[in-house]
Amino acid sequence: MSMRLFSILAATAAFASTLAACAPVPGPGGYGPSPSAAFNATEFGWSVRTGTAGIDGRVAYGRDGQNFACTGSVALTPDTPYTRARFQTLYGSTDQAAVPEAVIRARTVPDPNADYRSYVRSTTCENGRFRFDGLPHGGWFLITPVSAGGDRIVLMRHVVTRAGATANVTL
Fold first, then answer.
1. What sign does the CA torsion over 86, 88, 93, 97 have?
2. What is the pTM (predicted TM-score) of this model?
Protein backbone atom coordinates (compact mmCIF):
# COMPACT_ATOMS: atom_id res chain seq x y z
CA MET A 1 0.00 0.00 0.00
CA SER A 2 1.38 3.39 -0.92
CA MET A 3 1.95 6.04 1.76
CA ARG A 4 -0.55 8.36 0.08
CA LEU A 5 -3.32 5.72 0.13
CA PHE A 6 -2.48 4.88 3.75
CA SER A 7 -2.69 8.59 4.69
CA ILE A 8 -6.08 8.97 3.00
CA LEU A 9 -7.46 5.86 4.76
CA ALA A 10 -6.13 7.04 8.13
CA ALA A 11 -7.67 10.51 7.68
CA THR A 12 -11.01 8.97 6.68
CA ALA A 13 -11.01 6.69 9.73
CA ALA A 14 -10.18 9.60 12.05
CA PHE A 15 -12.98 11.70 10.58
CA ALA A 16 -15.50 8.85 10.92
CA SER A 17 -14.61 8.24 14.56
CA THR A 18 -14.93 11.96 15.30
CA LEU A 19 -18.45 11.96 13.83
CA ALA A 20 -19.38 8.83 15.78
CA ALA A 21 -18.28 10.44 19.05
CA CYS A 22 -20.84 13.22 18.51
CA ALA A 23 -23.80 10.90 17.95
CA PRO A 24 -26.57 10.64 20.56
CA VAL A 25 -26.32 7.68 22.92
CA PRO A 26 -29.33 5.36 22.84
CA GLY A 27 -29.61 2.00 24.56
CA PRO A 28 -26.87 -0.54 23.98
CA GLY A 29 -28.63 -2.04 20.97
CA GLY A 30 -28.68 1.39 19.40
CA TYR A 31 -31.20 2.82 17.03
CA GLY A 32 -30.93 4.29 13.62
CA PRO A 33 -32.80 7.27 12.31
CA SER A 34 -36.48 6.62 12.77
CA PRO A 35 -38.79 7.71 9.97
CA SER A 36 -41.48 7.97 12.65
CA ALA A 37 -41.31 8.62 16.35
CA ALA A 38 -44.33 6.40 16.96
CA PHE A 39 -44.30 4.29 20.10
CA ASN A 40 -42.49 1.00 19.55
CA ALA A 41 -42.06 -1.26 22.59
CA THR A 42 -39.04 -3.05 21.10
CA GLU A 43 -37.04 0.21 21.27
CA PHE A 44 -37.46 0.17 25.07
CA GLY A 45 -36.28 -3.45 25.53
CA TRP A 46 -32.72 -2.59 26.54
CA SER A 47 -33.94 -0.43 29.43
CA VAL A 48 -35.56 -3.24 31.42
CA ARG A 49 -32.31 -5.15 31.81
CA THR A 50 -30.37 -5.02 35.03
CA GLY A 51 -26.95 -3.44 34.74
CA THR A 52 -24.05 -2.15 36.80
CA ALA A 53 -24.58 1.57 36.21
CA GLY A 54 -26.16 4.08 38.54
CA ILE A 55 -27.22 7.69 38.92
CA ASP A 56 -26.56 9.68 42.08
CA GLY A 57 -28.52 12.91 41.86
CA ARG A 58 -29.45 16.05 43.70
CA VAL A 59 -31.81 18.91 43.11
CA ALA A 60 -30.22 22.34 43.48
CA TYR A 61 -32.49 24.44 41.26
CA GLY A 62 -32.92 28.10 42.03
CA ARG A 63 -34.47 31.07 40.26
CA ASP A 64 -35.09 34.71 41.18
CA GLY A 65 -33.39 34.22 44.55
CA GLN A 66 -35.59 31.26 45.46
CA ASN A 67 -34.42 27.72 46.10
CA PHE A 68 -36.73 25.04 44.77
CA ALA A 69 -37.36 21.70 46.48
CA CYS A 70 -38.57 18.34 45.13
CA THR A 71 -42.34 18.03 45.28
CA GLY A 72 -42.75 14.55 43.89
CA SER A 73 -40.86 11.52 42.75
CA VAL A 74 -38.02 11.47 40.25
CA ALA A 75 -38.75 9.61 37.01
CA LEU A 76 -36.13 7.96 34.82
CA THR A 77 -37.32 7.42 31.25
CA PRO A 78 -35.33 5.52 28.58
CA ASP A 79 -34.06 7.55 25.62
CA THR A 80 -35.79 6.17 22.51
CA PRO A 81 -36.94 7.86 19.30
CA TYR A 82 -40.45 8.03 20.81
CA THR A 83 -39.41 9.64 24.13
CA ARG A 84 -36.94 11.95 22.38
CA ALA A 85 -39.68 13.33 20.10
CA ARG A 86 -42.12 13.53 23.01
CA PHE A 87 -39.70 15.42 25.28
CA GLN A 88 -38.66 17.78 22.49
CA THR A 89 -42.32 18.77 22.20
CA LEU A 90 -43.03 18.94 25.95
CA TYR A 91 -39.79 20.53 27.18
CA GLY A 92 -38.45 22.21 24.03
CA SER A 93 -35.18 20.28 24.46
CA THR A 94 -33.76 16.79 24.71
CA ASP A 95 -30.77 17.95 26.77
CA GLN A 96 -32.14 19.84 29.78
CA ALA A 97 -35.02 22.12 30.68
CA ALA A 98 -36.93 23.83 33.47
CA VAL A 99 -40.53 24.40 32.35
CA PRO A 100 -43.63 25.39 34.34
CA GLU A 101 -45.85 22.36 34.86
CA ALA A 102 -48.86 24.25 33.43
CA VAL A 103 -46.98 24.86 30.16
CA ILE A 104 -46.11 21.16 29.81
CA ARG A 105 -49.71 20.13 30.49
CA ALA A 106 -50.92 22.55 27.79
CA ARG A 107 -48.65 21.10 25.08
CA THR A 108 -49.90 18.37 22.78
CA VAL A 109 -47.81 15.40 21.73
CA PRO A 110 -48.48 12.92 18.92
CA ASP A 111 -49.77 9.57 20.14
CA PRO A 112 -50.54 10.81 23.68
CA ASN A 113 -52.09 7.47 24.67
CA ALA A 114 -49.00 5.37 23.95
CA ASP A 115 -48.20 3.60 27.19
CA TYR A 116 -44.46 3.83 27.74
CA ARG A 117 -44.93 4.20 31.52
CA SER A 118 -44.11 0.56 32.24
CA TYR A 119 -40.53 1.36 31.17
CA VAL A 120 -40.19 4.39 33.46
CA ARG A 121 -38.34 3.90 36.73
CA SER A 122 -39.19 6.04 39.72
CA THR A 123 -37.64 6.89 43.07
CA THR A 124 -38.27 9.34 45.86
CA CYS A 125 -36.44 12.60 46.29
CA GLU A 126 -35.53 13.06 49.94
CA ASN A 127 -33.72 16.15 51.19
CA GLY A 128 -33.01 17.06 47.58
CA ARG A 129 -31.26 13.75 46.81
CA PHE A 130 -32.15 10.68 44.76
CA ARG A 131 -30.46 7.55 43.45
CA PHE A 132 -30.98 4.89 40.78
CA ASP A 133 -28.93 1.66 40.85
CA GLY A 134 -28.78 -1.48 38.71
CA LEU A 135 -29.17 0.41 35.44
CA PRO A 136 -28.03 -0.81 32.03
CA HIS A 137 -25.75 1.33 29.85
CA GLY A 138 -27.71 3.87 27.82
CA GLY A 139 -29.36 7.25 27.49
CA TRP A 140 -32.05 8.34 29.96
CA PHE A 141 -34.21 11.35 30.79
CA LEU A 142 -34.46 12.41 34.44
CA ILE A 143 -37.66 14.30 35.28
CA THR A 144 -38.81 15.79 38.58
CA PRO A 145 -41.23 18.50 39.67
CA VAL A 146 -39.91 21.19 42.02
CA SER A 147 -41.51 24.11 43.82
CA ALA A 148 -40.61 27.16 45.87
CA GLY A 149 -44.10 27.48 47.30
CA GLY A 150 -45.88 28.59 44.14
CA ASP A 151 -46.47 26.94 40.81
CA ARG A 152 -44.44 23.86 40.10
CA ILE A 153 -41.56 23.74 37.63
CA VAL A 154 -40.62 20.45 35.98
CA LEU A 155 -36.90 19.80 35.56
CA MET A 156 -35.69 17.51 32.79
CA ARG A 157 -32.14 16.42 32.04
CA HIS A 158 -30.62 13.87 29.67
CA VAL A 159 -28.11 11.50 31.31
CA VAL A 160 -25.94 8.74 29.88
CA THR A 161 -25.07 5.77 32.06
CA ARG A 162 -21.99 3.63 31.58
CA ALA A 163 -21.53 0.06 32.83
CA GLY A 164 -19.77 -0.06 36.19
CA ALA A 165 -20.00 3.71 36.76
CA THR A 166 -22.25 6.08 38.66
CA ALA A 167 -23.23 9.32 36.95
CA ASN A 168 -23.36 12.28 39.34
CA VAL A 169 -26.14 14.65 38.28
CA THR A 170 -27.34 17.99 39.60
CA LEU A 171 -30.73 19.26 38.46
1. negative
2. 0.77
